[in-house]
Amino acid sequence: MRPRTAVFAGIAATFAFAAAWHGPVGGAGARIAAEGEELTRLNLEYYEMDQVSGWMQRGPLTRRIWLAGEADTFQRRELQRILRGLPQVSDVQWYRDGGGTVRAPIVLPLVFEAELAALSSFAIGFILTYLVALRRRYIRGAIV
Asked: Which helix (H) or strand (E) holds 132?
């Protein structure tokens, strides 16, 4: 097998395994969403915000929590600040019943985050392997 083919096969396998882990085989995306929604519900109960509900954005699944319900401006800001501190959450927005757009930062879908993490791990392993092979080649050349 040619070296380029092996590298591209490794990248393709990395994509496939990361997507499978995130989706149907590992269910990591569903676990992250369930944990995020559970922690959101527990925080809302702790602060006695029974009239507010929260859920993770799906389709595509991201680390954004949407909140809906009755709250004044201070409560909205504080809930956003508190819930952004959760490890599964990167953004918190309030849902508008009337529709319209919400200006919010771009949040990558979780499948892309898993792919980027897997590719960065593959790249680190590839670079370390290259450095070890380079060192072996240097040592072999110095001894002979």
From this structure: helix 110-143
Cα–Cα distance measured from residue 72 to residue 50, given in angstroms and rounded to the nearest whole number = 14
Biggest CA-to-CA distance, the chain:
78
pLDDT computed for residue 80 by the predictor: 92
| C-alpha span between 110 and 25 (Å, rounded) | 15
Q: The tokens 């080649």 sit on which residue?
A: 137
Single out the residue of 39, 56, 53 nearest to residue 107, CA to CA. 56
CA distances from residue 71 to 29, 51, 53, 99 in whole angstroms, order as listed: 30, 8, 11, 18
3-state helix, strand, coil in the chain (%, to 5): 60, 10, 30
Domain boundaries of the chain, sorted by first residue = 3-143
- Report the sign of the C-alpha dihedral through residues 83, 85, 89, 92, in that order: positive
Quote the pTM value.
0.73
CB 65 within 8 A of CB 91: yes
Check whether 103 has a pLDDT greater than 80.
no
Model pLDDT, residue 143:
57
